[in-house]
Amino acid sequence: MVKFPPLKIVVLLFFSVFFCLANAQDKPKKKKKFLSAAQDKITFEKAEQLFEEKNYKLALVEYNKLELKYPDEPILIFRLGVCNFYIPNAMEKSETYFLRLDAKKFSKTDLEYYLGRLNHYNYKFEEAKINFQSFLKLKDITKEMMEDAERYITYCDNGIELMKSKTDAQITNVKSPINSDDAEYVPVISSDENTMFFTYRGKKSTGGLQLAPGKPDEEGDYYEDIFQSSRDSSGSWQQPTPMASYINTVEHDACIALSGDGQKLFIFQNPPEDPGQIMMSVLDSNTWSVPKLIEGINSSAWEGSCSMSADERTIYFSSERVGGFGGKDIYSATLMPDGTWGNTLNLGINVNTEKDEDAPFIHPSGAFLIFSSNGHNSMGGYDIFRSDLMADTVWSDPINLGPPVNTSGDDIYYVLSADGKTGYYSSGKAGGYGQQDIYMVKPAIYGKKFTLVMVRGQVNLDDKPVKSEITVINPVTGKTLAVYYSNSSTGKYLINLPGGKEYKLVYKLQTYDPLTRMLNTLEVDSFIEANVDIQFYSKDYVTNLKSKSDSVKTNTTNTDAPPINTESLTITDLLKQFGDKKMDGLEFTVQIGAYNLPQNFNYSKILKLGKVNKQKLDDNITRFTMGKFFTLNESYNYKNKVVAAGVSDAFVTAIYKGKRYLLRDLVSSGILK
Questions:
Q1: Quick one: pLDDT at residue 664?
Q2: Which CATH superfamily is domain 170-442 in?
Q3: What pLDDT is stored for residue 69 in this prediction?
Q4: How confident is the model at residue 30 (pLDDT cuts 50, 70, 90)?
Q5: Which CATH fold would you assign to the domain 544-668?
Q6: Buried b (16+ CB within 10 A) or exposed e, 132-143
Q7: CA atoms of 303 and 270, how far apart (whole Å)
Q8: Which of 4, 159, 178, 521 could disulfide-link 499, Cβ–Cβ 3.0 to 4.6 Å?
Q9: The pLDDT value given to residue 218
């Protein structure tokens, strides 16, 4: 897959390592002999200078001018082929130029090398090996070129073997509005796949075309920005929006990771005085904070990618610091008591090689690590690998994810949903919207079983969203395992916990007694979701509820039920208009809980109010309900008694002719009128 031109930020590029191919043997001894006009000579000299500087984009502009007048000149055809070779989405055009040349007559150039690269790119590994072997027989090739060709022969051998075990994974473009005719790459997602951030480079980039940061120039480049998108109620991605100006600067700003709950965003920046550093921005309500340097991870060397564990106590990152096995190695660091990161460890020889390892992604289960490497048994450039955590800090030999996930080009920045079913990554493959697009992979991995419980819910105070500290504790040892926070604007939270254990979740709010929920996952043997909503109530609010529960008609404006889907109609209006209305086939009940793990729900404290009914539906969720009523007023009167008794999650739901309805649906569907 073909990538964009070199950037300072990350070594993502498809042909990023070997831009050294304009050596002396490419130069014709009498390169000006075909030029018949003085201006053509000037144009050619300018093109050659840009070519020598490896500025293939601008060199191509000059060579294209000459092509109109000298369409059959061999050296010009060769130069056009090389330039297009390094231009995004121009690989096929490059091939048309190279195939016009006779390798025997054009033997004193790197033509065989490029033919080998083209065949390798097109998965013609056997033909590519022949090209590279012919190239290696030439005299006067540089040591660097020789090592490069030998490396591609190894890639071809690996590709031949890996193609024998090609998986049936389906790779689909996520399409518009995420992808455009510009470049979108490095997607990062929240565990539930509802939030995506990605790096963008194109017409919408802050600063526009720039020769250098803050210096607009029509012949310059676009710099990277970070965009975000979320899914709507139908599951479709909404129009992406750029991050704030204090995050998207006129320099390169790239997203590299997102915490599982979507509350912490990791950003790569490379100011002039630093080769590359990792920053972090935190979501507070609806606002992202100014990115801050992560203390204890960044060094004087390049650090460019990372991933945070689900308990937010370990960060895996890639670095070029001294002391590794090769160029880029993957390290881990743990959270220290003072909030910095330390105890930095190289992941070892099973993961790292003498080549480059980059783009780590630790799965929320903690059971395995995804990363990219151009070492191991890569079939071309970076391939995506999986390494399993065997014991403590011991990692297994990596497994190549194989084609079609891995291609003959660079495959990097692969992230997975918490359930492991869906993967996301970027590619410049043919047929996309633009220079790079974001793609979705299903299934994301093969042959790896893990256990994970995704706990999510909402914390409210007097039926309004609130920020709460959520502490996860081992109930046997009393040890704190992790600390999270619900969002102050929405009250929502998301926690990923490995299965097979017992947990105590303590929800804390200033001046209020903590609320505790026990979570037993001992019987969990796969991925499941559990919803735990938490309601804090002030004394005045509870007193008000008890008072209202003694009234035959309740006109309360507070409810746990979802809001009515009508702008002018409130719960109060609903009760006033329909509170005593009875209809054939319509009844109401009070739901007190809904659990994937029903053994976690203790409702003994409200049995004095009546019988608790249990029903397991097709979604594998067990719902607990109480009472059977024929008017809204009766059901709300009972619901308030349940809340006052201590089940703060209770809300009224309706059943019409055997089908379950939310109250808002009764109005929108015309049942209540």
A1: 65
A2: TolB, C-terminal domain (2.120.10.30)
A3: 92
A4: very low
A5: Alpha-Beta Plaits (3.30.70)
A6: bebbbebeebee
A7: 9
A8: 521
A9: 86
